[in-house]
Every structure is written in structure tokens, then in C-alpha cells.
UniProtKB/TrEMBL annotation:
One of its GO terms (biological process) is regulation of DNA-templated transcription. InterPro entries: ArsR-like_HTH, WH-like_DNA-bd_sf, WH_DNA-bd_dom, WH_DNA-bd_sf. This is Transcriptional regulator. PANTHER family: BSL7504 PROTEIN. Pfam families: HTH_34. It comes from Candidatus Kutchimonas denitrificans. SUPFAM superfamilies: Winged helix' DNA-binding domain.
Amino acid sequence: MEAKVSSTSQLDRLIHQRVRLGIMSALAVNDTLSFSDLKALLGITDGNLSVHARKLEEAGYIECHKYFEERVPKTEYRLTELGRRALGSYLDRMETVIRAARGA
């Protein structure tokens, strides 16, 4: 029996991590989300969200906008066009992996 080469090796490792995939997915269906909204949605700590969001921002997948609202600092994130394309490619590859695993 010959082993097939796994197409998981072609997955974007930056997106494949659970928290970063959550951030990308949430931003794909929302124009913007605040730091607080993302933190609550994903059920993670401030530090955890900050680290993962920064990695995505450095890759150009998301943008961060910081501002003040009545002297209260606010942070909002949005998915960039590059991020939207990267997520689409990631999802296409995952669908291929799933079909292969199901023997389709």
C-alpha cells in the first residue's frame, strides 16, 4: 500500500493555529471587531489575543486601528485583502484535506 503525500504540508501555518484561525474567521464575517469583542468571542486572555493578533498584523493579514473614545483607548481589527485571500486559500486546502480523509 503506497502512502499519499499529505496536503496538510501546504497549509498556511500562520493561519492553522487555533486562535489565529479564530481571529481570521471572526473578521471574515465582520467588517471590524474590537479587541474586547474578539477576546470574549474566542474566550482567551488579553495577552494571548495580543500575541496572536500581532503575528497576523505583521504578516499583513489584519489591520489594527487604535483610537480614543471619550478618553478610553479602543482597538479595532479588520481583515485585509491579503488576509481574505490567505484565508480563502487556507479553506480551499482544508477542504481538499477533508475530502482526501473521507476517501472522496
